[in-house]
Amino acid sequence: MSAPSDSLSNQISHIDRFLTTSRFANLPPTFFTHLRPTPLTNPYLVAVSQSQAQALTIPPSQYDQRDVVEFFTGNRLPNETAPLASVYSGHQFGVWAGQLGDGRAILLGDTLTKDQQHLEVQLKGAGPTPYSRSGDGRAVLRSSIREFLCSEAMHALGIPSSRALCITGSDQYVFREEPETTAVVTRLAPSFIRFGSFEHWYYNRRHDELRVLADFVIDHYYPECREHPNPYRSFLTTVTHKTAELMALWQSVGFMHGVMNTDNMSILGLTLDYGPFGFMEAFDEGHICNHTDQQGRYSYKMQPSIGNWNMHALGQALLPLIGSVEDTQAALSVYAGSFTDKWSTLMRAKLGFTTRQETDKQLSDDFFTLLQENHADFTLSFRKLSALDNAISAKDADLLDLFIDREGLKAWLERYRTRLQLESSDEVQRQTSMLATNPKYILRNYLAQNAIEKAKNKDFSEITKLLSLLERPFDEQPENEVYAALPPDWAKGLEVSCSS
Ligand code: AMP
Ligand code: MG
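Above: inputs. Below: predicted complex with adenosine monophosphate.
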């Protein structure tokens, strides 16, 4: 852990130069509270994302050095750092929840990537803030590992997400269902502003701040909206489009967020705030990955319509800036088309179609019906479909074995193969492109659970192992075949606690 003295000054200067004042901190003081993280005792490195670290200015090899660990735990920050927690509000499970905020995430500042991109650096679990309500401001190691792995896995799947740089841990305990040790995740995104950040000012009838926030987001992230006669309408249209596309991307890999409250919806269309998320295994469109969500509001099949509901919550909040219900409605109306276009593009890629045929939607819907009736594993079904030959071959058995209704699947495959004849690409091209679209490795709950169990005994090797696996989700990785297998029996009843 300790740094050799000759590299110490070098290392400190890396830390000193890592942060710049966050652009967010230029907003008026009503948007946040300046405060410093609460230190954790004897922190240690749990994991680091080498690929993310490589894009930044602290060399990846230095993350296990004491000063770096202390820095990313929030224990020792350069003097000029001005950390802050931001305020926001939100609708939780469809009900207005009033003021929330960064109850346990502290924004240290921005960092500039090697290619000069601004990323906000947040420490999640860095101690209480004025917005913690009754919470302790901490995050447990278990949920931190899940957030870390899933952020990086989503990025590798090509799905917009906040990133995770590293986890540091401490033996300090907090109480959830049982005592658990705490951790801090360093997460990065161009902005962590949420729909709820806008709702906050709207419901407090503070339209001046609402405008300041919208102008800030437009200027920094959506400057093209300024060219529109009504920039706020254009902004809402763009966010609607991005959100609809994000929902299609989630659906296409079977990702379920679990808590799609408006305070967890990124204004940049990123996947944000990983809690009790899950990836679909045995397909069931009604699957609920958050066991406190008894109504299934955030089940797999509901995500696209909840994305639209959340957009309407944002639309309501932006109404005073846009000026008319008609203009607001016009902006929101792009949702359905954006979702359908993206979904059909993704599905055609997943099925290996490069041309557009009238029957494609029916064929795709019918495959989903088969997945549902057979509760076939979502990821493996598409993966094994990708490897099929254009004519019936021995490989068919790999796919058929996932289905109980083999005759039903055979009948569908016959139609599918007839459809493939309309493609100009050859068999190998199709297989290659499908295998680059349908992942082999996803973050199955039981895989995360195995890494968590080992980590409880201070063995962090499985986190690193999973990270390297999930960074290449489309590659065959024969040495890791076991990680692509169906979940073991013990994992079937695995419930992910929503406490974090
Ligand atoms: P979530 O649904 O996990 O995104 O959390 C909803 C809100 O509760 C956010 O504003 C969090 O900052 C806050 N929160 C969650 N857990 C804690 C905690 N242990 N301490 C303080 N605030 C928390
Ligand atoms: Mg949240």
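The chain has three domains: 6-189, 195-345, 353-435.
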